[in-house]
Design brief:
Helix content is about 45%, strand content about 0%. By secondary structure, the chain is mainly alpha-helical.
Length: about 210
Amino acid sequence: GYPGGRPGRPCQEVVSQLSLIDLAGSERSVANVLSAFGREGKGTTRFQEAVNVNQSLFVLRRVITALSKREANPREAQSVHIPYRESKLTSLLQNSLGGNSYLVMFACLAPSERQDDENLSTLQYASQAACIRNQPVVNLDPKDQLIQQLEARLAVAHDYLRRALQLSELPDDLLEEERRAAGAGPRRPRPPRCRAKPHPNQPKPTSHGNGN
């Protein structure tokens, strides 16, 4: 079909990207690995994975804290550094955190009283993330964006003419001229013709009569 029910307008293909990130982890996971495997567990793959996870979560917390400070003080937004590139996780989430996409974050709490400290930390983490304000926009090709702007201006001009002339529809001859102009494309102005000036040392041509 045609968007907006307007025949003659080609359909546009919209490509979106969906990122699902599971941030399950704790800063104490390294201690858990050490307690499970002992000091010899430092060289294991699981230990290295735990270190990478904790580093990513630490950088993510720094990014969210910096973004919340930028939203709280708009005047100092230019001076606040957002460390997106310090972690692969934050590099992937750059468009989602303070970018031009939609973001939904779920904060999960534990029902046990033993997890009060972690629940409080999670709530503080979520309250900072709630301060971030994204500006979702559709990334369009500059040509497509220009076409949409011109179509919007043309629609406004048509409405103005109909109201000014008190007509329900525009005249057919006007629409036909509009189609011809759109099909022919913009006309390029022709450059002015320049006549060649004679050289100052060149002799002027003389006309010879027949003597009659």
